[in-house]
Amino acid sequence: MPTSAPPSNRFERRRAETRQSLVRAARQILAETGDTSASIQAIAERADVGFGSFYNHFASKAELFDAAVVDALEEFGQAVDERLREAEDPAELVAAGLRLSARMVDSHPELMRVLRHRGLGHIHSDRGLAPRALRDLERGVTEGRFVAVDPTVALSALGGSLLSLVELRFARPELDADETAAGLAEMILRMLGVPPDDARDIARRPLPDLA
């Protein structure tokens, strides 16, 4: 999961561990049902922490669940970044991000269930895959790889397509995940102005391993 600078002493380490236990419990609840009606007591019990500890870290359940979504989004973005760090072509980055997301339904199911249930409200988040995708879209427009569109509007289309792909993977697990994702990636690249033959080639290039 995403981490920041390590705590400097035992008290801070324990405090950070308690907070992360609460976030992890909230993520599990979101992944299972997307429902945020669980009581604070139930969340604390799942996290294996004292009820009173909750308010040392969060003012409300809403704040905790927001933190859980941000945690999942950032893990998602880091996972994609790590596997695409060698790629330079904005078109390849956009296509591979979509295709890796489809594979992560199998390799990171809890993470992708959180995205499935809560992702729509975070398409334009400043954490997770959104700022990374916006960066690639802006670069593609600047370099002439993509047509001159508003990158923020393009991000709306890309984010909506990604969430639809994730939903499709859960709803229709019998479909060929790689070919489905490649077909969608090709459509997105063509929408962004990449020539058809180029878009088809880029959307089917080998992907890095998610293991």
UniProtKB/TrEMBL annotation:
Keywords: DNA-binding. Residues 39-58 bind DNA. Gene3D superfamilies: Tetracycline Repressor, domain 2. It comes from the Bacteria. Residues 16-76 form the HTH tetR-type domain. PROSITE patterns: HTH_TETR_2. SUPFAM superfamilies: Homeodomain-like, Tetracyclin repressor-like, C-terminal domain. The keyword DNA-binding applies. Coiled coil: none annotated. This is TetR family transcriptional regulator.
